From TrEMBL, chains A, B:
Belongs to the class-II aminoacyl-tRNA synthetase family. Keywords: Aminoacyl-tRNA synthetase, ATP-binding, Ligase, Nucleotide-binding, Protein biosynthesis. This is asparagine--tRNA ligase. InterPro entries: Aa-tRNA-synt_II (IPR004364), aa-tRNA-synth_II (IPR006195), aa-tRNA-synth_II/BPL/LPL (IPR045864), Asn-tRNA-ligase (IPR004522), Asp/Asn-tRNA-synth_IIb (IPR002312), NA-bd_OB-fold (IPR012340), NA-bd_OB_tRNA (IPR004365). The lineage of its organism: Eukaryota, Fungi, Dikarya, Basidiomycota, Pucciniomycotina. PANTHER family: ASPARAGINE--TRNA LIGASE, MITOCHONDRIAL-RELATED, ASPARTYL/LYSYL-TRNA SYNTHETASE. One of its GO terms (molecular function) is ATP binding. It comes from Mixia osmundae (strain CBS 9802 / IAM 14324 / JCM 22182 / KY 12970).
């Protein structure tokens, strides 16, 4: 009976919307008007003898609108109920809100059976909420994360526009493995003759005339576009079939990647720092924002060699690390975190890694045998962004690729970029989900992504 | 020898950038200054006895900057050469440009052997350029398309922000086929034991614990997010393993999808029209823009039933169509194009299709046996966007899904959205590549996408 209580016939529903147009709660809070209609969800309700109060949220703002109701109106309401409410907007007599809606007219759009509703006060642990990704945006915490993501995206667009970057859409399906790590997902056309549950076991797909993979980075394609457009960027999904089931890894994640004609690694680091601070300024109320915005000083920049010195000294004195530290080895996650959390107590750039640790495309400083590259390390997260100047000399690039045993034919198009009007250029990639996790001080990446994809987890 | 002619040692290169900072040509044209340094590509060069002229482009603007050079400087230059040029910026004496750069100092960054360079005046057909996607952004036509795409994306972001829509990132890898058309790509982890060339033939991947597909639409996930955030949108890659090798199909394409709490199909159509006109206003110099912006009148809206009447009358009179027209059948591409090109001579909305032609999630008007949905048809392209109100009643939705023989367990999460605080809601999807093809009057979708993916084509 309940689910039919306030459903409408087609006619009613068609005329309902015309009776009074709903206003976003955000608008009402920003510029109050004398009367209003809102369509929203009840986040909580307090029923007293003569009056009831409901906290209404329509997603437009993290601030709820308090509604003042009669006990009769409130009978049908509990957490999760969706309603359309009309009334007068008055200065609130209580604390915690500037205005409140004194409801004259109320329509229940959708009931919510509180006995069955999984979003309960008693269990809102992140681990529990991860099991109901389709419902967890209804919690204030998660909705705040999604609104922060929105603001960061918007600010990235406006900031990079100001810097003359063009937004581009490189391909998601590729035929190359940019990072050469071999952790790519394969894309194929399901064989029509096999049932769905054994998809993947059919003959090799030949849809593209060659194997298709999901992109691990858009960099190589961005380089092609930068060779014509000068400055390009994208915010795009990237993929790793990495069997690392940690709080810092996802199989599908969004990366902000930019590529430009440039010849200075220091300039690239400036760009990354300024971009991040610009984005943070759009969400000044996040846990980490105040500290970042209060500090006008440039984030520290040290060479890889210096980082190793610091880590070796720390290890000699305090045996801090479980993995070994030595020149020529990659920094492990614990080393990266120590540099940011303990040594710098701020984001820190580590640059000029040994060339042999880095992919073929990075520009080398021959004398030092280092690559002109950097990683940006931040507290709690470790690597947040990485970038480099790219090898723009055809001869040098070919030599490096031959040394690495790569198939030059497969990269003929990439070599062409150095063959015809090559320029010094470079770029960076910034893990967008990691950025959000860092700024919101969220421990697990799965808790900043609406529908996380990771090892053995693609529910919904 | 040539390729080494003007390469720099590490030291030179590191100091080069500091000598003089390049300014984007767009900036110079917008607000001229007395002297400037630009880094750009030579688009063409005219060498005379005492003076030479080069058209320089750095991607920031479709307008070139004319450089005035000495014959000595010009010796090293031809189409495709990349340079850094410094000099004074003076009012141009010639026609076609307001300012020109009188070059004092010139560095060749990268030569371009014109004998080998594939971008030649003699063959710039779209079909030829499609074979060199990594170089074709260097043509003025294609770079213009990419700049138009950028402007449309930027305007979508600002316009939808004004409308209180939040930008979200739904998943690309899904476990469901939203449209039920079965043309999904399968995602799997390549078997480590098989060589790369037979990827796909290994055992079924169990990376996600269930089959993984590439999303054909983000709608179902957007619905979950709209049920908390009210208004959400995304611009995301979507995929179809459709073996239609036509000029209007791609295996990978970007879709702008939006979902909101709303109860009026007419309102949804308003939203789509206003969004498109807002985007067009950001690129007023495209072939179609002037006509669209000059017309303040609302685009025509007709029911499917009326569309069939018109098509039948046309067919009876002139035998225009090769496919049959009858009530209850889907409109074919030629029918859609005729409605927009011949009947309306403008974009046209066709709404209220027979429910049985449309997917399970669309709201039905029981009395008329129609779905509350629309397609937006435009000249030359046909379907550009489609949208509907969604069935928000749990009982009705379940019944429809059972009738369609769907697995309700797999969609339990989707049904939950109607179980807990359901609201009337709806949304639309707009083919972003088709929009660009339409506005730029480009015949083949492959020619508006940087690296198109289609049947047997994923070069680069």
């Amino acid at each position: 009976m309940r689910s039919g209580l306030s459903r409408f016939c087609d006619h009613c529903r068609r005329t309902l919307g015309r009776r009074s147009k709903s206003t976003a709660i955000k608008r009402l809070l920003d510029s109050p008007q004398s009367s209003a209609t809102v369509t929203a969800w009840v986040r909580s309700v307090r029923k007293q003898k003569r009056v009831a109060f409901a906290e209404l949220n329509d997603g437009s703002s993290s601030t709820n609108l308090q509604a003042v109701l009669t006990p009769e109106h409130a009978v049908q309401l509990n957490t999760g109920t969706s309603i359309t409410a009309s009334g007068s907007l008055v200065r609130s007599q209580g604390t915690g809100q500037s205005v409140e809606l004194q409801v004259d007219d109320l329509i229940v759009l959708g009931h919510c059976d509180l006995d069955e509703y999984p979003i309960q006060k008693k269990d809102t642990s992140m681990a529990f909420l991860r099991k109901i990704p389709h419902l967890r945006p209804r919690t204030a915490t998660f909705a705040d994360v999604l609104r922060a993501r929105h603001r960061l995206v918007q600010r990235a667009h406006t900031f990079l526009e100001e810097q003359d970057y063009l937004h581009v859409h490189p391909p998601v399906i590729t035929s190359s493995d940019c990072e050469g790590a071999g952790q790519v997902f394969s894309v194929s056309e399901p064989s029509k003759s096999t049932p769905t549950d054994v998809i993947g076991s059919g003959p090799p797909s030949n849809f593209f005339g060659r194997p298709g993979f999901l992109s691990v980075s858009t960099q190589l394609h961005l380089e092609a576009l930068a060779a014509s457009l000068g400055r390009v960027w994208t915010l795009a999904p990237t993929f790793r079939a990495e069997r690392s089931d940690t709080s810092r890894h996802l199989a599908e994640f969004w990366m902000l990647e930019a590529e430009s004609v440039c010849d200075s690694l220091q300039g690239l680091m400036d760009d990354v720092e300024q971009l991040i601070l610009a984005m943070v300024s759009a969400v000044p109320d996040l846990p980490l924002s105040p500290a970042l915005l209060a500090k006008p000083a440039r984030w520290p920049r040290i060479t890889y060699a210096r980082a190793i010195e610091l880590l070796v000294a720390e290890q000699d004195q305090k045996q801090t690390f479980s993995t070994s530290v030595k020149f020529g080895s990659d920094l492990s996650s614990e080393h990266e975190k120590w540099l940011a959390e303990v040594h710098a107590r701020s984001p820190i750039f580590v640059h000029d890694y040994p060339a042999e640790l880095k992919p073929f495309y990075m520009k080398r400083l021959e004398a030092a045998q280092t690559a002109e590259c950097f990683d940006l390390l931040v507290p709690h997260i470790g690597e947040l962004a990485g970038g480099s100047l790219r090898e723009d000399d055809l001869g040098r690039l070919q030599l490096r690729m031959e040394q690495d045993g790569m198939n030059l034919d497969a990269y003929a198009w990439y070599l062409d970029l150095r063959r015809y009007g090559s320029t010094p250029h470079g770029g960076f990639g910034l893990g967008f989900d990691r950025l959000i996790a860092w700024l919101t001080d969220t421990a697990n990446l799965r808790d900043v992504v609406a529908f996380p994809r990771s090892l053995e987890a693609s529910r919904c």
